Amino acid sequence: MKIGVxxxxxxxxAIVTGFCTKKAGHAFFLSPRNAEKATALAAEFPEVSVCxxxxxxxDQAEWxxxxxxxxxxxxxxxxxxxxxxxxxxxxxxxxxxDLKAITGETALLAHVVPLPMIVRGFGPLLVYPExxxxxxxxxxxxxxxxxxxxxxVRPLQLLTCIMSPYYMLLEEFVKFSDxxxxxxxxxxxxxxxxxxxxxxxxxxxxxxxxxxxxxxxTPGGYNEQSMIELLDNGAIGAWRTALDRLLERLExxxxx
Length: 256
Prior knowledge:
By secondary structure, the chain is of the alpha/beta class. It contains 11 helices and 8 strands. The protein has helices at 10-21, 35-44, 54-60, 96-103, 132-138, 153-159, 163-179, 184-203, 210-214, 222-232, 237-253, and strands at 2-6, 27-30, 48-50, 63-66, 86-89, 108-113, 124-128, 143-146.
């Protein structure tokens, strides 16, 4: 496939790197935007080229990945899309209705939400509307999660925004163990294994009853004490508050 990428930021770079590392057999044409990252990718992978303009990207491509910040949306108005283009919107604050007004009729138009771990060839990929062709394209580097309703996109997209605080949570666990004299490598290994096992148990629980899992503890035990401490200090509710505020920001900033 010939894939054009408009906007070479962190996520776009991860996607290109993931595909190229997996030797998926695609040719990538990158926009000159963020020239440093684009040039670095072209230097590392022979299947990557940097184009002189965004229009040249479109002229070379079959698939077009839109990966722009809101400040760069105006650049799309200067471009001419073809009816055979397959366009994937990765811009958080661009909705498909507005993007279609810019692209006109295309062979395919979908919203996708890739995650940074795609650089290593794994992780979920939100896709709306359900478009198996998109899942097939990304199969070497991610697992497609198809959404039936447009209203599902924003809340699930925002769940991906807890990655940084999640990693900081893990760091606090590691630091605690380190402070008690545990070897750092052991702290890291066990923390990762623990949270991986917790996620696996949740995924394998019938009906995914997370409340039931949370209550699976000895009354008066240490696990219960940790739950009480965190609830009393608002630590658990703070995650929901953060998500609600993120949603308010996204709704205010989404181009409409």
